[in-house]
Amino acid sequence: MKNKTIVYTLYFLSFILGLQTIVGCQQKPEEQKQGITITDDLGRKLHLPEKPKRVFGFTSAMAEMLFAIVDTSNIIARTPDSDYPAAVYTKPIVSNYPIDLEQVLALKPDLIFTSEGMTPLDVAARLEELGIPVYYQKYRTVEDVLKGIEDIGRIMNREQVANHLADSLRKEVQQLEAKYKNRHNPLQVLTITWTDPIYVYGQNTLLTDKLRILGAENAVQETFDQPYPALTREYILKLSPDVLMGGTKEKLEQTFFNQYPELRKIKAYKTNRIYAPTGNLIERPGPRIVESLKELEGFLYP
Amino acid sequence: MMRGLYFILALLLIAIVIVLGLQVGSFESDLSTIAEAFLNYNPDNTTHYAIVHLRLPRLLLALVVGAALAFCGYLMQAMVNNGLADPYLLGTASGASLGAVLVFFGFVNISVAGFYMPPVLAMAGAFIVTLVVVILGYRKRQLIPAQLLLAGIAISSLCTAMVGLLTFLSDSEGKLKSVIFWSMGSFERASWTLLPYPAVALIVALILFAFLQKQLNILMLGSERAQALGVQVSHTRWAILITVSIVTGFAVATSGPIGFVGLIVPHVTRGLLGTTGRSNLLFCAFVGGLFMLLCDLLSRIIYPPTGLPIGIITSFFGVPFFVYLLSRKNYKFSS
Known about the structure:
Chain B: InterPro entries: ABC_BtuC-like (IPR037294), ABC_transptr_permease_BtuC (IPR000522). Chain A is α/β, with parallel strands linked by helices. In chain A, 46% of the residues lie in helices and 13% in strands. The relative contact order of chain A is 0.10. Mean pLDDT of chain A is 90; it is low at 21-32. By secondary structure, chain B is mainly α. In chain B, a hairpin with a 2-residue loop joins strand 1 and strand 2 (115-116).
């Protein structure tokens, strides 16, 4: 009788345990659903089961951002054009154009960071179908880049590092802004990105804000649909910028001015104010933004 | 009587479009500014400078290239006796594109001895590809039109595939933009130094074929009938081939491969003047030039300041007219 009681008790206990296991298993997805939901700069809502631990940037600028904020062990890859900081070379290369979906899947990232215009939305949608969320940032101003740094810090649980970095950069930006505030006759700056056809930095690019901070202006005042519009020789002749950026005078003499001799009439050519900004600095929105501002300052006010 | 009227009308329209085109640009300029720029030119006045050194060569280049492509299209259609032929049949366009793309992708320096290399390599590409196509189309000391056509298609496809491969492997967005811009045609590179090349080639060709127009009309009856009527078919074909490759080569090298003009304008010419008109070739060149001028003007008005790629406009505005022409009951390719 006593034995029977023990056996029944054990049956009962194992039944309860089994039930508990089943209920526990069913509760897991609910916990997953709880996770965290973040909204990127394009207004896209992303659901993450937990704070991401395995991440990488789909652009070289984003790689710079991540390396400045995130613990290096949490960064799992780099794109072929990523070359800064040196630690980036320790990470495996992942092709972002054309995207190698299998390679991305094999890396098992929790989240991919990118910026507007650099990764097509359909590529992001395909990745999300495969369970990999893609977070977009959008930068129109220098302040947007600094907010982007804080944003990554929040998402990656590195708020202290990110906020400290953003605050120190912000302070330097404010100092520069104060130094060049209310300048009369701001310098008109034209920056070319390609010579045949002539493509330039348009009004709705980050460079416009960098120039504003430095008391200068983007010579292209008209807002085009594209951030980097194509211009005609006549248009540039009419702008006649004070400063031309896009290459050294020697290099542009051989290519740009050799091809378009009519443009030797612009003010920047006549006054010899032609400069070659460092590609990585002027092109990449990232933690080296103050370095970029200081380089531009050197060109504008030698 | 009608023929003379058409010529006068074409010339008048060319003059009107040039005057209108001179007023379109970034600098504001009305008729009086334009007149002043020519009659009282001041090199320090940038508006004058833009009118004389940027707008006028651009318009003249559009005129010359349009005329050249239409003229070469007419010759090619006569040579292969087929209304589907165009100046790019010999692979000129794809050869030129490949040449230019090789420069954009860094296989050749962008500037050599002060020469901007994309047009130079485009010209070389056009000639080399044409030569290969002609060698393939030549059998038993004769040019076989059908074989020439097939060789042109095959070699063009090969060049296009090579351009595609280079484009796919491109490591920079700028290079892609250059290739796209080049492949759809533009007159933005126009200058007084560039203009004489296609212009001289076209004028020499027009003079040469003013004497060969009769042979050309007979050739359109078919090679056997032309031979029977005393035309030296082989010589005429060679003359056409050499002319087309030189004139088209210069046109493509300066402005990129602009499609459709060389196909439709010869049909327009025959539709208006008949298939065997004495001055069809000259009229064809005028209409081609006028059509290209109009397309360039429209492209700049629709999408300032650069204008849409010219090849898009030629197709958009050329196709409806072409369809109308083909639907006319009394239109025939040859008599």
